[in-house]
Amino acid sequence: MNPAIHNQSSSFAMAIALLRRDLLLVYRRRSDAVTVLVFFSIVVSLFPLGVGADPSMLRLIGGGVVWVAALLSAMLSLPRLFSSDFADGTLEQLVLSPQPLALTVGIKCLAHWVSTGIPLALMAPLLGLQFGLDSDALWVLSLGVLVGTPILSLIGAVGTALTLGLRGGNLLVALLVLPLNIPVLILGAGAVDAAQSGLGAGAHLSLLGALLIMTLIGAPFAAAAALRISLD
Amino acid sequence: MLKATDLLQLNNLACVKGERLLFSRLSFEIPAGSLVRVIGANGTGKTSLLRIMAGLSEPAAGEIVWNSQHTRLSRSEFLQDILYIGHGSAIKDELLPAENLMANCTIQGEAFSEPEVHAVLEELGLGERLDVESLSLSAGQRRRIALARLWLTQRPLWLLDEPFNALDAKSVEQLCLQISRHVREGGICLYTTHQSVDIASDRQLTLPLDAFCQPAKAQSEHSGLNGLI
Lengths: 232, 229
Description:
Chain A is mostly helical. Chain A is built from eleven helices and no strands.
């Protein structure tokens, strides 16, 4: 038996190890993740202060406001997806890994979603309460954010990969990625509206799910290609 | 795994950075057991050459053949045979030294147990820093963690870009010994350095990049060759 065989870990083990490493980094650098959540709650809380406290109006805009804030918060956390790996040379090692780069990108997006998307989805209904959303709408809001944020992470990965190493890259990412996220916003906010008016949010959420599947198939490959270009 | 028949061929490589041609018509053959020092002044493309060989950048022309297979066509097999350490140490501030080393190995598909990793780090003089986050380590200590992979790996082809940077005298000596052990066992090591180091090896080659640079003017071509001599 060749001793080297034991040391060759499978693609699955590599993926798990990478996910573990990324989540450990987020855990050791908790303040970054918390900042995003604080930003989220502050942006949402600004709206009632700005537009006045008319309950019917707040109920009308609530879903949309929480969604826009979630979009901006996810955007705020995008730079940490690749930039520190790019700066310290880890990204080169990831590109040289025998495991497909698209899978690596997918794992990094998964870690980003777990550390950003899931907390946002958990916080969204709490913030929705400020706008007097009823419990159905709150469920739909939370579920929508849960399904929508991985799309934001994946599309964001393409944007950040393209702008790695550029000056003013972070602003450029926002310009590149925000327009692409419009369908997510429309479907997500639409789902909350539909739930509030009693139409049922099934159609919106299904479309959001379909969008997630499409992004899941395409975005990792696009981001992997972009990473190779950025490193060249 | 190391094989006595390993052979790396560079065929007619050319590299263009921006508008500038760094080198062209670079052909070189490196058999198993060779220690190759890539030499050239700053900006002659030493790093670019190593990055091209690792497949991080595309050559403007030419090809790299590893054991008579084009690396572009059999990339995943080639990646399992190379170990590239560039300027970046790939060390995360938030992780412990052993976590960093294990993560870097696992990313490359080589898994090692914690005792193995600890043993290597202790050998490299990091024994007392094993339970502190890498944030508090010096540049040389980080470099040692990155280079510790060389003590664990089974891969035949090492591409080391300025491996001696930031290392103290003892670490330089340890690294030289490890590299000479690797080439003695039939591995291949390409490295760049501006320091004068003495690595014992039977087959020492130098790859002078100045010889493959084609300046725009014939005049400067002469000065390039003179610089080499």
